[in-house]
Each structure stands twice: as structure tokens, then as C-alpha cells.
């Protein structure tokens, strides 16, 4: 039960990040590596604020700082015409220093003995089980984020961003500022990622400078797993499937760890493999099809 | 209406292959005029369109549209008053968005309220009527992705999107060249209808000389980045495809002779 509950909690909390990844990877069609840095940024800001006794402000600041980091990457991409992947890497590298600074020149910060979001919630419902309260808090945050995103991407501005990822020639011809749309979209994405980090810090009770490494791949894996189960449909369905994908991903990992299938440190490699296989599927399928056609043609000849 | 004055643009500047793309080109378009533009590949037709729409900035010269100097304006700012159709039907629409969403983006460009619902119920009724005019059955497929449409249908959709916000200038860059003959005929018919009905100032590039004479009220021939022939009125109505071809090759031959003299 604890295994299942833990996966559910983590799946939902990291699902916030998967929502952000969905915005850049699927809607904007540009993978964004800022994620690895902005996740830790949200984590560091939230932990520091919690230590100062302001956990709620930590969550809000986590969102704001994530958005700011995303906007920086967006400006590098558009105003300075730096390659999208490299822009993300530059911001991510720079954020490493910023994150250390926020943590007070320490590589980790413990929240032991401080009051945070989850401890407040537990105190508020003393009779209810710990896992249920944690689950409710995580689910509530995810639901709010999901509702906000699906509302926004149904508005005019949301349409403009979706079109920017789809065909920027058409967007320019419709007198929309393509650069501005890109910056806004990347900022929204990293706001979600920062939020995810901020909640994760208070859930796990510590912040570690290395937490963000490989986060983008974990997010991609969640989005892709979601699509395997739910297909690729409308944007709202896409958001929902990204969160579900994140939960399924955590379950798979937990089961594999429990069965001693692989050690805990294999996590990132497994995530990378999942993403690679999923991205390679269309090409592999096509090769197989051509090979089969060729074989048939040879037989008929 | 549109006034291009002494426009100069250079390709590959500073290399041995430097070439004048527009050489001191001047062209004036009256309000409601429909110009067809012909000329061989590399004559500067598309370059002229790029200069007007803003994806290429002039080395010197100026462009005025509706009394406003747009020489230094950004492409998306100019797009408020310029509708543009590309040759490639894929370029004008967003394939993963629905037909209604595509039109909505073009429709609301003049009164942007970013946080308003992307496609409202009222909009849908307006779009349905506009699409029904094409007689392609698109009005019943508004929730479908634009990527599912054929080339002709996508170009019809693009045409609607380019004209829905009443631009002051419509640029058509061989917009029927990639379509099959039947679809090309249909799109050209719709284009002519919309242009005539709204008295849109229009410029159309074409390689089909018969089309160049059949549509519009004025025909311009370009060569080496400048206008070498500009006919309208009786001179144009008396013009035949044969005669225009002769004029064109005559000019080309003279240039050959010049080259020989140089050698």
C-alpha cells in the first residue's frame, strides 16, 4: 500500500513538471532543457522560504522563478537567435550557480522540524490517514494547474501559442508576434516545472542541488507513456494524459525497484531508454514495413 | 495605395556571387487595382513580395502602404494590412489545429483580446457562412484538423484566412501552381470573386501567361529586378499570349546580343 501511495504522490507532484514538458515538447514542438535547472530552482526557493517560515510564499515564488528562468531561455532563443537546445543548456548551467546561492552555498538543505504545506494539511485533518491527506493535497494542486492550463490554451493567446508550434509562417502572416508567443510558452512551461520542484521540496522535506539532473528526460518519459495509454488527442486530453503518464512512470519504477529488478541508481538510465524506445518506434515501424514490402516484391518476382 | 520607390536589394552581398535582386524598382498600385506579375525565375518577383511583406529589408528605397511608410516595419506588424498566399498550400495553415481554430486566428487579428475564448459560438456561425460560399463542404468539417484537407481545400482555407480581416493589400505568390488543374481553376475563380466583390488591391505572381492576361486589370513583366513592361487598358486587352511571349523573348535576345558584344 505504501509503495502504491508513494508512487501516486510522486506521480502527481512530478506530474506538474510533466504538464510543463508537454507545453514545450508537444505544443511548442521544441524540447527545452531549462527544465533541469528550473526544477532545482523551484526546489531551492521553496525550501529556503519554508526554512524562513513561509511555505506558501515558497510555492508562489517557485512558480514565479520558474517562469522567469523560462523567459530567459525564450529570449535567448528569439531575441539572440541562439539554438533552442543550446539556449536551454545555457540557462540550466547558469541556474546551477543561482541555485547554490539560494541554498546559501550549500548543496542541500533539510526542512526537518519546519512547518510546511503537508504538515499544515496533516494538522488540519488529524483523524485522516497520512497518505490520504498527502494524496489530496497533491491532487488538488495538480487539478488547479490542469484547469488553469486547459483554460489558457483555449483562449486566443493559447491558440496563438499552439499555432506557433505548428506553423510559424502562418502565425506571422496572421500578424501575431511569434517571438513573444515562444517566450510566453517557455515561461509557462518552466512555471509548471518550478511549481513541481517547490511542492517536491516540501513533500520530501529537503532540497538537494543535484535533484534536477535528468528531470527533462523523466518529464518526456511521462508525456510519452501517457500517450501510449491515451493516444494523442486534444490539448486538454494531452495534459491529462501527461499527468497519468507521470503516475504510471512512478509505478513502473517503484515496482522495478521493489522486485530488485535494478538498483535505485539505474533510474535515469531506464528513463532515457524508455524515451529512446518511444521516440524510435515510428522509424522502426517504417523500416519494418519497407523490409516486408521488399520481401514480398522479391517473392512475387 | 501601395507605393514602392527606388527599391534596391542585394543577394549574397560581399561575395563574388553578389547579385542585385531588386535594382531601383518603382511600382505604384492604385486602390482596388489587380496587378498580375510575370517574369522568369530569378526576375525578382518573389523578392518584391518579400520586400513588401517585410521578410526582406531593402538596401535603399521606400515602401508606403495606404499612406503609411512601412519600410522598417516588422513582418507581423505589416500582416495587419497585408494578406499573403504562398505557393505551398502547407505554409498557410496550422495542420494540427482545427479549421475553425485556424480561421479564428486570422479573424481576430484586428481586435485582439488575448484571454477571450479562442473560438466562440458566434464566431462559428460566421465561419460557417464564409466556408459555405466555397461549395467544398468545408462548413461541415470545422472541427477537423486542417492537415486532413487536400491541397486545394487548404489553399481555399488560406485564402479565406488571408482576406477575412479585410487587408488593404492581397499578395498571391503563384498560389494555384501546386494544385491540380481542376483545383487551380476553382481556387482562381474564388480568388477573383473575393477580389472583385471587396475591391481588394491585389498583386498576383504567375507563370501562366494566359492567366496573367485573363485576370486583373494590369500586367507587369519583371526582369533582373526591375519592371520591363507595364501594360493596362486597351494595350492590355489587345495583347495576346503569343505577342507577350514574343516581347519577352525579344528582350531576352537583345540581352544575349549585348553579352556577345561585351565578349
What does this structure look like?
The complex is a heterodimer of chains A (301) and B (263). With 301 residues, chain A is mainly α. Chain A has one domain (2-267). Helices cover 78% and strands 2% of the residues of chain A. A two-stranded antiparallel ribbon of chain A has the order 1-2. In chain A, helix 3 (55-78) runs antiparallel to helix 9 and helix 10 (215-230) packs across helix 12. The radius of gyration of chain A is 20 Å and the shape is globular. Chain A starts with a helix and ends with a helix. The mean pLDDT of chain A is 92. Chain B folds into 2 domains: 2-90 and 165-262, Rossmann fold, CATH 3.40.50.300; 94-148, no CATH class. Chain B contains 9 helices and 10 strands. Chain B has helices at residues 45-53, 75-78, 99-107, 121-132, 151-163, 181-198, 209-214, 233-237, 241-262, and strands at 2-11, 19-29, 34-38, 60-65, 68-69, 82-85, 169-173, 201-205, 218-223, 226-232. A 6-stranded mixed beta sheet of chain B has the order 6-7-8-3-9-10, with helices on both faces. In chain B, strands 2-1-4-5 form a 4-stranded antiparallel beta sheet, covered by helices on one side. In chain B, helix 3 packs parallel to helix 5 (151-163) and helix 5 (151-163) packs parallel to helix 6. The model of chain B has no long low-confidence stretch (mean pLDDT 88). The A-B interface holds A 154-160, 162-163, 166-167, 169-178 and B 75-80, 83-84, 86, 90-97, 101-102, 104-106, 108-109, 112-119, 161-162.
SSE blueprint and pairings:
The complex is a heterodimer of chains A (301) and B (263).
Chain A: H1 2-27, H2 34-51, H3 55-78, H4 84-102, E1 108-110, H5 117-124, H6 130-152, H7 156-166, H8 168-173, H9 178-204, E2 206-208, H10 215-230, H11 235-258, H12 267-300
Antiparallel strand pairs in A: 1-2
Chain B: E1 2-11, E2 19-29, E3 34-38, H1 45-53, E4 60-65, E5 68-69, H2 75-78, E6 82-85, H3 99-107, H4 121-132, H5 151-163, E7 169-173, H6 181-198, E8 201-205, H7 209-214, E9 218-223, E10 226-232, H8 233-237, H9 241-262
Parallel strand pairs in B: 3-8, 3-9, 6-7, 7-8
Antiparallel strand pairs in B: 1-2, 1-4, 4-5, 9-10
Helix pairs in contact in B: 3-5, 5-6
Amino acid at each position: 500500500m505504501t509503495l502504491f501511495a508513494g508512487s501516486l504522490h510522486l506521480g502527481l507532484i512530478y506530474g506538474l513538471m510533466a504538464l510543463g514538458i508537454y507545453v514545450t515538447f508537444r505544443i511548442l514542438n521544441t524540447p527545452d532543457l531549462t527544465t533541469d535547472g528550473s526544477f532545482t530552482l523551484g526546489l531551492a526557493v521553496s525550501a529556503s522560504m519554508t526554512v524562513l517560515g513561509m511555505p506558501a510564499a515558497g510555492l508562489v515564488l517557485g512558480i514565479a522563478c520558474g517562469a522567469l528562468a523560462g523567459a530567459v531561455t525564450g529570449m535567448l532563443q528569439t531575441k539572440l537567435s541562439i539554438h533552442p537546445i543550446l539556449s536551454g543548456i545555457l540557462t540550466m548551467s547558469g541556474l546551477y550557480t543561482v541555485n547554490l546561492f539560494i541554498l546559501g552555498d550549500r548543496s542541500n538543505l533539510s526542512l526537518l522540524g519546519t512547518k510546511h504545506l503537508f504538515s499544515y494539511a496533516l494538522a488540519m485533518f488529524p483523524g485522516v490517514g497520512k497518505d490520504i491527506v498527502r494524496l489530496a493535497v497533491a491532487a488538488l494542486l495538480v487539478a488547479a494547474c490542469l484547469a488553469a492550463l486547459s483554460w489558457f490554451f483555449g483562449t486566443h493567446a493559447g491558440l496563438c501559442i499552439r499555432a506557433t508550434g505548428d506553423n510559424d509562417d502562418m502565425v506571422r502572416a496572421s500578424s501575431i508576434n511569434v517571438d513573444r508567443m515562444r517566450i510566453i510558452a517557455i515561461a509557462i512551461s518552466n512555471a509548471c516545472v518550478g511549481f513541481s520542484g517547490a511542492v517536491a521540496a516540501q513533500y520530501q522535506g529537503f532540497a538537494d542541488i543535484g535533484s534536477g539532473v535528468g528531470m527533462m528526460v523523466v518529464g518526456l518519459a511521462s508525456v510519452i507513456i501517457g500517450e501510449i495509454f491515451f493516444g494523442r488527442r486534444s490539448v486538454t486530453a494531452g495534459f491529462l494524459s501527461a499527468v497519468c503518464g507521470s503516475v504510471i512512470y512512478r509505478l513502473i519504477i517503484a515496482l522495478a525497484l521493489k522486485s530488485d529488478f535494478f538498483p535505485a541508481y539505474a533510474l535515469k538510465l531506464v528513463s532515457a531508454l524508455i524515451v529512446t524506445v518511444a521516440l524510435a518506434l515510428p522509424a522502426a515501424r517504417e523500416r519494418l514495413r519497407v523490409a516486408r514490402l521488399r520481401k514480398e516484391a522479391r517473392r512475387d518476382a | 495605395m501601395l507605393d514602392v520607390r527606388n527599391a534596391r536589394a542585394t543577394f549574397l552581398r560581399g561575395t563574388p556571387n553578389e547579385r542585385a535582386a531588386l535594382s531601383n524598382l518603382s511600382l505604384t498600385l492604385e486602390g482596388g487595382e489587380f496587378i498580375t506579375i510575370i517574369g522568369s525565375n530569378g526576375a525578382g518577383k518573389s523578392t518584391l513580395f518579400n520586400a513588401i511583406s517585410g521578410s526582406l529589408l531593402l538596401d535603399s528605397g521606400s515602401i508606403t502602404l495606404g499612406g503609411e511608410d512601412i519600410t522598417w516595419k516588422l513582418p507581423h506588424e505589416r500582416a495587419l494590412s497585408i494578406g499573403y498566399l504562398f505557393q505551398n498550400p502547407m505554409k498557410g495553415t496550422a495542420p494540427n489545429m482545427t479549421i475553425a481554430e485556424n480561421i479564428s486566428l486570422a479573424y481576430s487579428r484586428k481586435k485582439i483580446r488575448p484571454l477571450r475564448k479562442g473560438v466562440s459560438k458566434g464566431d462559428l456561425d460566421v465561419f460557417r457562412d464564409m466556408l459555405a460560399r466555397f461549395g467544398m463542404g468545408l462548413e461541415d468539417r470545422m472541427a477537423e484538423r486542417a492537415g486532413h484537407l487536400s491541397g486545394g481545400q487548404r489553399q481555399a482555407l488560406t485564402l479565406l484566412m488571408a482576406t477575412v480581416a479585410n487587408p488593404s493589400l492581397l499578395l498571391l505568390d503563384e498560389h494555384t501552381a501546386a494544385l491540380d488543374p481542376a483545383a487551380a481553376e476553382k481556387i482562381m475563380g474564388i480568388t477573383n470573386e473575393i477580389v472583385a466583390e471587396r475591391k481588394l488591391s491585389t498583386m498576383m505572381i504567375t507563370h501562366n501567361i494566359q492567366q496573367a492576361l485573363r485576370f486583373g486589370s494590369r500586367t507587369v513583366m519583371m526582369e533582373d529586378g526591375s519592371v520591363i513592361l507595364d501594360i493596362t487598358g486597351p494595350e492590355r486587352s489587345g495583347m495576346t499570349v503569343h505577342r507577350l511571349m514574343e516581347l519577352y523573348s525579344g528582350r531576352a535576345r537583345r540581352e544575349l546580343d549585348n553579352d556577345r558584344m561585351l565578349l
